[in-house]
Design a protein that fits this description.
Elements: H1 7-31, E1 39-41, E2 48-50, H2 51-67, E3 72-75, E4 80-81, E5 87-95, H3 97-102, E6 108-115, E7 118-126, E8 131-136, E9 141-143, E10 146-147, E11 160-163, H4 169-182, E12 188-190, H5 195-203, E13 209-213, H6 217-229, E14 232-235, E15 246-251, H7 255-264
Length: 269
């Protein structure tokens, strides 16, 4: 088992992450429908943010600061602090903001905690379906406390693949072109609209694989650890870990073939 120098501290961090994610998820449920008058945009007119995103982030960040003031923080809505402890929290307080604002039940709170740059804890809470996905490196992954495993599928032709699209119009156009080349080679494509949920669906076998370009660390940090701890493989198309360039996840028997297909159809950088 590979953890920090203190397994007890890892347990403490995992418990705090689970508690804060659950509290943030409860806030999202409570505030459903209340954010329609407080919507802004970020990187483009399609990249939406609401006061609920900010309230969820504030709840999580405040909890971290109170319990672990020496930890670093990187969060989607702007919270960023340098730490002294070697631990860093990577937070998406509302992954799937567009879904949330439109009343679509596919959004989540995602929290990963790294120790010296390596993710050790991942928690993703899907409030609408009452599902909490968790992982601690070296200990496997669970959904609501029950161990989960990735799909054993090895044949791309019958694989269900998830993906997502950028908020940047030019990149989205390129992604659509790649998608037209992927679709004929797989069973079908699904697009939930929240990367953390896609990755957790790979972890529990609801998707056989997943790929997406242009993600931020808070989009994939927790979900990638959960998928890996569920027996899957995660990475980019160059043999490295998932990155902003591209994130791929699949069951162990499908991962290499999915990466080969993505390279073949021009899904690389």
């Amino acid at each position: 088992m590979t953890e920090s120098d203190s397994p007890a501290e890892t347990d403490e961090v995992a418990e705090l992450a689970s508690d804060l994610a659950a509290r943030a998820a409860a806030l999202l449920i409570e505030r459903r429908g209340s954010a329609t008058g407080s919507i802004g945009t970020k990187t483009s007119i399609t990249d939406m943010v609401s006061d609920v995103d900010r309230a969820s982030e504030s709840l999580v960040v405040t909890g971290i600061r109170r319990a672990r003031p020496g930890d670093a923080i990187l969060a989607e809505e702007g919270s960023a602090e340098q730490g002294t402890s070697g631990w860093r929290w990577v937070i998406d307080p509302l992954d799937g903001t567009v879904n949330y604002l439109y009343g679509l039940p596919a959004y989540a709170v995602s929290i990963a905690v790294e120790h010296h740059g390596r993710a050790l804890v991942g928690v993703v809470v899907d409030p609408e379906h009452g599902e909490t996905f968790t992982a601690v490196r070296g200990r496997g992954a669970t959904r609501n406390g029950v161990p989960i495993a990735t799909s054993a599928e090895s044949d791309l032709a019958v694989a269900l693949i998830g993906t997502g699209f950028s908020y940047d119009a030019e990149r989205r156009s390129r992604q659509a072109t790649v998608l037209t080349r992927v679709v004929p080679r797989v069973r079908d494509i699904r697009r939930a609209g929240a990367a953390s949920i896609d990755l957790c669906w790979v972890a529990c076998g609801r998707l056989d694989g997943y790929y997406e370009h242009g993600l931020a660390p808070w989009d994939f940090a927790a979900g990638a650890l959960i998928a890996s701890e569920a027996g899957g493989y995660t990475g980019d198309l160059r043999g490295g870990p998932p990155s902003a360039e591209v994130a791929v996840a699949a069951g162990a028997r499908l991962f290499a073939g999915l990466c080969e297909l993505l390279v073949e159809v021009g899904a690389g950088p």
